[in-house]
């Protein structure tokens, strides 16, 4: 499926007009994007390090996961909305950028992992889940979201 | 889905993802090293 028409449309959309013409607006939206990334990264780290039994050992992992997941959702919404706005400023450039597609692929993998596997599985009592599965999930989660952030940052240098 | 299926899915996803990410970052770091070698010998 060729997504070029979408990026071509985005490049000439109203969003692109605003993001290209008003540097201040772009900067504020970028601030929210970075805030969202740090919030999402924080929630991922707290939740996964708890699953690895490294932090907050005195709090049940079910409680930590439940609370971090709520704010993970908020952060993801902020990131996606601000990200679409920021993409509109350089839509065609991004279309030809390998790192952008690496970021999108890892973001897609992360979203599928969180909502189709991690979240449903962690609704069960954590004591009944095999420790190896919990550890593998935590390590995978950290590495996926690290890749999303790192490849996103790499876009600016490629 | 029941817990056993989800656990299997989690482990399968984890293995595939970890292999893919290891390959991806190895290639990226390889390109950086190659570029540095071209620039500085």
Number of domains of chain B: 1
In what range is the share of β-strand residues of chain B?
under 5%
Beta-strand segment tally of chain B: 0
Order of helix and strand elements from N to C terminus of chain B: H
Mean pLDDT of chain A: 95
Largest sheet of chain B: none
Report the end-to-end length of chain A measured between terminal Cα atoms.
Answer: 24 Å
Rg over C-alpha atoms of chain B, rounded to the nearest angstrom: 18 Å
Number of strand elements of chain A: 0
Low-confidence parts of chain B: none
Number of helical segments of chain A? Answer: 7
The Rg value of chain A, from CA coordinates, equals 18 Å
> Uncertain regions of chain A: pLDDT < 50 for 5+ in a row?
none
Distance between the termini of chain B: 55 Å
Shape of chain B: rod-shaped
The percent range for strand residues of chain A is under 5%
Structural class of chain A: mainly alpha
Helicity range of the residues of chain B? over 70%
What are the SSEs and their pairings?
The complex is a heterodimer of chains A (158) and B (41).
Chain A lengths: L3 H8 L2 H8 L1 H29 L9 H29 L1 H5 L2 H25 L8 H25 L3
Chain B lengths: L2 H38 L1
Task: Describe the model.
Chain A contains seven helices and no strands. Chain A is mostly helical and 158 residues long. The two termini of chain A are 24 Å apart. Chain B has one domain (1-41). Helices cover 93% and strands 0% of the residues of chain B. Chain B contains one helix and no strands. The longest helix of chain B is centred in the middle third of the chain and has 38 residues, at 3-40. Chain B is rod-shaped, with a radius of gyration of 18 Å. The mean pLDDT of chain B is 94. Chain A binds chain B through residues 102, 106, 109, 113, 116-118, 120-121, 124, 128-130, 132-133, 136-137, 139-140, 143-144, 147, 154, and chain B through 1, 3, 6-7, 9-11, 13-15, 17-18, 21, 24-25, 28.
